[in-house]
Amino acid sequence: MSIPSGELARLLVAIAVLLVVAHAAGRVFAVLRQPPVIGEILGGLLLGPSVLGLIAPDAAKGLFPASGVTPVGLGVLAELGLLMLMFLSGREVLGARTATRRRTVAAVAVSGLVIPLGAGLASTRLVDLTAFSGPHGTELTVALVFGIGVAVTSIPVISRIMLDLDLLGTRFARIVLSVALLEDVVLYVALAVILGLAQGSAGSVFGLWSLTGETGTGLTTAYYVVASLVFFAVFMPLGRPLFGLFARSRFNFLERRSPTAFRLTFLLALVLVCVFLGINPIFGAVLAGFAAAGADAAEEDSVRRAEADRAWDALKKVSMALFVPLYFAGVGLQLDLVHHLSIGFFVAYLLLACGTKSASVWLGARLAGERPRVATDLAVALNARGGPGIVLATVTRSAGVIGEDLFTVLVVLSIVTSQIAGLWLQHAGVGAAETEPSGGGNVELVRGKGPGPDAGAPAGDRVLRDGPGPAGRGGGAFVDRDHAVQFHAPPPRSGGGARGPRGGRHPDGDQHDRDLRRRHDGQ
């Protein structure tokens, strides 16, 4: 079945316009040293009912019609963008596991999750949840979304902000990323429970459970919740060895011919497992990224490791060029601030979210012995909700858990809190003298030059290098210009002084080494 030429032309025009506007707005935000993802959302917002729909409604309907091939095609691309974002986020979750002060991380993570979540759940008693519920939402599921929206934190947005501010080598950055990692894992598990409850109450049985013929709400709900949790429990520890087994198999011609295609196939396979089980596909994408990245990081063969790095680089470039911007721009395109944003409720929810999250993080940091200034910086940084907050909004809205009003509030909350964190960290001088090497080695922050000594770092990106040796072999972190942060395990140390921006000896090498050691020992 072919698409009529007129419908195909309309779809291609819509994709091109949305892509150009998303990248243009993202570029503006990048120049302003703000998260590009926020610019991509605002780009879609400009083309949606909030702006273009008000100024030129006929043009908006002509460009993005409500029916036909165009909305279906954009929906498919946005869904692929969400899956690729979750796949890359799974790799990021693996990379964010860094060693730092465990007492601070534990205290901040626990207080920063339990107190905001509890406050969010308690505040629902003051709100008519039916006004924010979707067709499949219940009082419990909407309340859980309400509470998680208060507690969630974003790894991608925080890592991007810290990249722009040259903070990734600091002890402060290590604490923030470690706490955000723990909170994101809890988010995915909680989201699995919410969607399981929603599917059970909706009565829309699909996949394995449909074979039983059971339609009772109680058993159906129990199945989806248990299936989601078991899927996480099984694939978190077993996904990496499973991927490694398939990748090294002599019968795996796809890995030998195209490592990129094999990783995509592995992603689609786990997504299809989720579809068969009847649980949300994003969990398969997250665990596929976690498993594949873990197996690649443990690969000892240098040739296979280099091929895997190139495969990830290709996947990331295509995803960040096409699919992910279309997903975030699509989120902005769906926002209707005129009809679905109650200013009074949003301000109240913003104050609740920022107040409880910041206060709980500050309290945890102070109880762990951090200085008031460090505790304040942590409180502001971990208040950014970014991508995970937006994913929470879009996935629960698609599942019919929440309605348009709460969806709009959650997305705008993610945008505003990310901007607050970026502006604060940019002007507060955070971590100026807190460079802490991972593993106790030397730190080097350089500009990537593309192929060559810094191979793997696209031109204009920054590479944080730990210890001697070329980037990609020494430890440290690479953060791309779009969204993701990647960490590399350091090799065994063999000495060597601090390096300058060209890989040579730092002009004041001995003194520089002593300064770095003194900073590190004083943490």
Automatic annotation (TrEMBL):
Top-level taxon of the source organism: Bacteria
Molecular function (Gene Ontology), one example: antiporter activity
InterPro entries, alphabetized: Cation/H_exchanger_TM, CPA2_transporter, Na+/solute_symporter_sf
Listed Pfam families: Na_H_Exchanger (PF00999)
Basic and acidic residues bias locations: 505-523
Keywords: Ion transport, Membrane, Transmembrane, Transmembrane helix, Transport
Chief site of localization: membrane
UniProt topology in membrane: Multi-pass membrane protein
Region (Disordered): 433-523
Gene Ontology process terms (BP): proton transmembrane transport
Cell compartments where the protein resides: Membrane
Biased composition regions of type Low complexity, renumbered to the chain: 452-461
GO (cellular component) term, any one: membrane
Residue ranges occupied by any Cation/H+ exchanger transmembrane domain in the UniProt entry: 22-426
Membrane spanning residue stretches: 12-30, 37-56, 68-88, 104-122, 142-163, 175-202, 222-243, 264-294, 345-365
Protein name listed in UniProt: Putative Na+/H+ antiporter
Organism (species): Amycolatopsis bartoniae
